[in-house]
Amino acid sequence: MVTYFSEIYRGLLSLFEGMGVTFKEFIKPTVTVSYPYETLEMCERYRGHIELIENEEGEPNCVVCMMCQRACPSDCISIAGKKEEGSKKKVLTKYMLDFTKCSLCGTCVESCNFNALDFSKEYNLASTRKEDFYFDLLKRLEDRNK
Amino acid sequence: MNLTLLNVIVAVVIAIAFAALNAAYLVWAERRGAARIQRRPGPNINGPFGLLQPPLDGIKLMAKQLTTPGGADKVLFIAAPVLAMFPAIMSFVTIPFSDTIVAKNMNVGVLMIFAFASMGSMSLVFAGWSSRNKYSMMSSVRAVSQAVAYEIPMLITTITVVMIAGSTDLMEIVNQQSPSILHWNIFPLLGNSHNLLMPLSFLIFFTCTLAETNRAPFDLGEAESELVAGFHTEYGSMGFGLFFMGEYANIVIGSCMTTILFLGGWSCPFGLFPGVWWFIIKLYILIATFIWIRWTFPRTTIYGLLNLSWKILIPLSLFNLLFTAGLIKVF
Ligand code: SF4
Ligand code: SF4
Q1: Does residue A43 fall inside a structural domain?
Q2: Which of B128, B145, B240, B325 sits most deeply, having the most CB atoms within 10 A of its CB?
Q3: Is 0.95 topped by the overall pTM?
Q4: pLDDT tier at B271, thresholds 50, 70, 90
Q5: Which residue is closest in CA terms to ligand 1's atom 8?
Q6: Could you say which ligand is closest to the alpha carbon of residue A75?
């Protein structure tokens, strides 16, 4: 008999305790991010697709040494460059990334000795078309500087 | 008030509008409340604070096709959602919101509301039976055992209140509680019973309303984790919409009854400015508690549910009935 009543009493008490917990949560501010309207800043070590790094003039650091293209195990990168008349350095004219095959392994970034390649923080990449994942990194660099 | 045809039509239209508006915006409140408890914003895109969400949902539901599963019992299948909504609306007719706002006061108001409330579980049985779906069937079996188990303590508690008031007239029950908060049946220190166990009765009654309206933590009829969606698995479009509205209308009725029987109806706690606003305030505090409870507790098991009723609620409510009878005899 005593256990019967004490069980009821303890049960009832725990119900009120539970309601206290939810009430406290109720008055606290929300913690979620309304995604399409707000986005989170990606963390430092996030690996998005690769991206060209620019120098102060807004030109790519790349010297078209082809190391990244050769290093890529999935053959995602295709580069083209040409030598201007009278100048010693090659200038990058095309940097295409086939992101459909990229495994984000980072070998290209590691192999670049000229600080010309890095991971982007881009993650809003959903699409229904394959063509949307062939990135022209040179164009993206220009768009960034616009 | 004379019962002319015009009066009846106006009363019914107002009742339907009140029920529909409540259903729509309680869904909104429910979703916002649930979201706040889970620390999210909830629906906030359509209109300010997401206030346009319910009408848009309604339009979406109405635009859908009403399908009947093959082999279903068509007549019962269509009758079930109507039966879910109709008793709820009928009950509104006799509920007094203040001493003037009542469509038709009856001296057996309590009885009438419980008669209609018991029809509510019929709709679940019809829906489950006619759907030709094993999950719906199981759900309706549960709904019946639940309705049987919880109507008993609910009625016993109501009888306790009726005994104290000496009347089944809802107006009369409220009038007896009107002088002050200490006359309310939840805490009747100055009433004519002086029963200190009444807060317990209030809890029993409130728990039973939760169970009667099939709300979490007693929503075993719906139990989406085991029975898909229970009795309304096969319903789409406004068939589902009517079940949904019926659920919220029943919540409003249950809260109205709790307010009238235990919280003094439209009387003010301090005896000042009695009126419909007090009724509305109490009503919505109770409804908010319904929502709060739903998002606090997980669903019980069917055994837990029946044990709670037969082993705890019924003995306690019976004891309180006898105790109250004794006190009334003494004082
Ligand atoms: S991250 Fe790896 S797979 Fe992707 S482009 Fe660079 S080397 Fe190729
Ligand atoms: S390794 Fe660096 S510098 Fe060389 S081509 Fe690739 S990005 Fe340009």
Answers
A1: no
A2: B128
A3: no
A4: low
A5: A72
A6: 1
Q: What ipTM did this prediction achieve?
A: 0.70
Please classify residue B273 by burial: count the beta carbons closer than 10 Å to its beta carbon, then call 0-12 exposed, 13-18 middle and 19+ buried.
Answer: exposed
Which H or E element spans position B328? helix B314-330
Number of domain units in chain A: 2
* Token duo for residue B197: 């166990």
Q: Is residue A41 part of a domain?
A: no
Interchain CB contact of A25 with B (< 8 Å)? yes
For B80-104, letters b (16+ CB in 10 Å) and e give: bbebbbbbbbbbbbbbbbbbeebbe
Distance from CA of B293 to the nearest CA of A (A): 7
In a domain, A115, yes or no: yes
What's the CA gap between A15 and A4, in Å, rounded?
17
Give the domain extent around A26: 1-31
Indicate the domain borders of chain B: 65-330
Atom of ligand 2 nearest to the CA of A111: 1
Q: Which atom of ligand 1 is nearest to the CA of A111?
A: 7
User: Could you read off the pLDDT of B202-226 as tens digits, one per residue?
Assistant: 888 888 888 888 777 887 777 777 7
